[in-house]
Specification:
elongated, alpha+beta, Sufe protein. Chain: A, 6 helices, binds FE2/S2 (inorganic) cluster, 3 strands
Length: about 150
């Protein structure tokens, strides 16, 4: 029984130290999106869709649904790192309830980085992957709409 308590105490201390290291590298906004990713889901029959492979080899998918001219739903999935989930989460928030033109003007890696309070240089490509995937999903919607 005493051993179990020792193990619990060790695990808690380890977790605390890991979180301290994470907080040195990442903002509270990054940690919030990492712990509670928004819109991390597939959307059936999307009006706009894209799948992009990033420079690291990871992929991201974005799904859009429209309500007249505004983006009413935006979801994403990724097989990438934790930071790609954070960046995808912020990207969907940037697009939601915006017109396509507004979203196209707003969605960029720089804007994602700004909203996150920055990322370490080694994670910047994760923001680029999220922005590129969303921009291609927006372009897919516009292309499909024009073809109708
Ligand atoms: Fe591949 Fe972050 S390392 S998306």
């Amino acid at each position: 029984m005493a051993k179990d308590k020792d193990v619990d105490k060790f695990a808690q201390e380890l977790q605390k130290q890991i979180m301290e290291q994470i907080r040195k590298r990442y903002s509270e906004t990054v940690i919030d999106h990492w712990q509670n990713p928004r819109n991390f889901r597939k959307i059936e029959n999307p009006d706009g869709y894209a799948k992009v492979k990033g420079s690291c080899g990871d992929t991201m998918e974005m799904y859009l649904k429209t309500d007249k001219e505004n983006i009413s739903e935006c979801g994403f999935q990724t097989d990438g790192c934790g930071t790609s989930i954070v960046c995808g989460s912020v990207a969907t928030e940037l697009a939601l309830n915006k017109s396509f033109i507004q979203a196209l003007g707003l969605v960029s890696a720089d804007e994602i980085l700004k909203r996150l309070g920055g990322l370490p240089q080694s994670d910047v490509h994760c923001a680029q992957l999220a922005a590129e995937t969303l921009r291609r999903a927006l372009a897919d919607y516009l292309y499909q709409k024009r073809a109708q």
